[in-house]
Write a structure and sequence with these properties.
Layout: E1 17-20, H1 26-40, H2 42-46, H3 55-65, E2 73-79, E3 82-90, E4 93-99, H4 108-122, E5 127-133, H5 137-145, E6 149-159, E7 162-172
Parallel strand pairs: 4-5
Antiparallel strand pairs: 1-2, 2-3, 3-4, 5-7, 6-7
Helix pairs in contact: 1-3
Length: 174
């Protein structure tokens, strides 16, 4: 089965639309969320050291987050009407930031992160927080490059049928 992903190589940032996520976006976002997980953890998945998250659970969680009365605020980046990245915030926390693997390395993640930080700050929060899986070194490096600080605090998470530890990162906005 061939999946249709809009090409965005060599597109200027103006070609991306950032809008409020709706429950109708949940399927597309869950699909690239799984592709991100598979890309990041491919060797562990192949070795049987790690299980992929439950796609139905991820899709339902995203659907619920994207409801208008949810405690979460999510923005999606779309190209030609198709979501290719998103961020979710709640209070002082950046809860999610994902970019479709085919669109990584083009600055979209940095753009979404800046918007998420601004949204959190606009809510009156100066101390920002996010959680990153301890073994997702690329994500942690991405956040550190953007001025986030890795703390020595860990949390244990069980979500969508998998269990993992996360490192807490913080950032203070002035």
């Amino acid at each position: 089965m061939t999946r249709s992903v809009p090409e965005c190589q060599h597109r200027p940032m103006e070609a991306f639309e950032i809008r409020v996520a709706t429950p109708a976006d949940a399927d597309a976002v869950a699909a690239y969320h799984l592709r991100c997980f598979t890309k990041t953890y491919s060797s562990q998945l192949l070795a049987g050291e790690l299980e992929a998250p439950d796609p139905a659970g991820t899709r339902q969680q995203l659907h619920d987050w994207f409801l208008p009365d949810s405690e979460f605020e999510t923005r999606v980046a779309v190209v030609d009407g198709v979501p290719i990245g998103h961020f979710t915030v709640s209070g002082h926390q950046l809860v999610h930031l994902f970019v479709e693997p085919d669109h990584q390395g083009m600055g979209l993640g940095r753009h979404l992160l800046a918007q998420a930080e601004a949204m959190i700050a606009a809510g009156g929060h100066r101390d920002l927080e996010l959680h990153a899986r301890v073994d997702n070194l690329a994500a942690i490096a991405f956040y550190e490059k953007a001025g986030w600080t890795v703390t020595d605090r860990l949390i244990h998470t069980v979500e969508h049928g998998i269990s993992y530890d996360e490192r807490i990162l913080i950032k203070r906005r002035t």
